[in-house]
């Protein structure tokens, strides 16, 4: 049980008039007061940490080491001019009797008018809505980050929402 510095000061104040008894207790009390002041922490001060601490794995792997560092992922050979889901940028969406048509620009800066169901080099357009296009991106090889994953949905917005606005 820790005593507060205020309690210690009150005890010292009560014992002060007794002079002789205080002279023998004074050394102990002052040491105790110094220790009590050092042990007390203020709520706004961060705890101090040992900067020389070393992690001891104890036979376990380090949880802070990236598991995907050693895996080599070879990039697919994409033919020149092919439109991929990664490179596709939605610059416009129009609506007509047959539904929506998306204006998509690829890495070659050529605009393409595409409808739902149109194929890309590594995927297909699943749906076109008023403000976004939903792609299905197919993987030809196993993804080391998610083995067994063959495709994923990618949503590209016409006017992407920027953080902080």
3D architecture notes:
A hairpin with a 3-residue loop joins strand 5 and strand 6. The protein is built from two helices and seven strands; from the N terminus they run ααβββββββ. The chain is elongated and about 95 Å long. With 165 residues, it is of the alpha+beta class.
Structural topology:
Blueprint: H1 5-15, H2 20-39, E1 89-96, E2 99-105, E3 111-114, E4 119-120, E5 123-128, E6 132-138, E7 151-157
Antiparallel strand pairs: 1-2, 2-3, 4-5, 5-6, 6-7
Helix pairs in contact: 1-2
Q: How are the strands of the largest sheet arranged?
A: 4-5-6-7
Looking at CATH, which topology of the largest domain would you report?
SH3 type barrels
Number of helices: 2
Order of helices and strands: HHEEEEEEE
Tally of individual domains: 2
- The CATH class assignment of the largest domain is Mainly Beta
- Report the major sheet: 4 strands, antiparallel
Relative strand content: 15-25%
The secondary structure category is alpha+beta
Helix fraction, binned, reads 10-25%
Radius of gyration: 35 Å
Distance between the termini: 53 Å
CATH architecture of the largest domain: Roll
Uncertain runs are 25-36
> What form results from the Cα inertia axes?
elongated
Mean pLDDT rating:
76
Task: Kindly state the number of beta strands.
Answer: 7
């Amino acid at each position: 049980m820790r005593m507060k510095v205020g309690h210690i000061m009150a005890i010292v104040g009560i014992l002060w008039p007794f002079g002789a008894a205080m002279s023998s207790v004074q050394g102990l009390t002052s040491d105790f007061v110094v220790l009590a002041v050092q042990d007390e922490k203020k709520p706004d001060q961060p705890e101090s940490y040992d900067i020389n601490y070393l992690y001891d794995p104890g036979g376990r792997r380090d949880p802070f080491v990236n598991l995907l560092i050693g895996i080599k992922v070879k990039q697919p050979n994409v033919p020149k001019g092919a439109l991929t889901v990664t490179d596709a940028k939605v610059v416009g969406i129009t609506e007509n009797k047959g539904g929506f048509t998306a204006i998509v620009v690829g890495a070659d800066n050529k605009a393409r008018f595409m409808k739902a169901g149109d194929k890309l080099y590594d995927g297909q357009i699943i749906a076109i809505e008023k403000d976004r296009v939903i792609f299905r991106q197919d993987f030809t090889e196993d993804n080391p980050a998610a083995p067994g994953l063959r495709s994923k949905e990618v949503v590209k917005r016409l006017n992407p929402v920027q953080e902080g606005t």
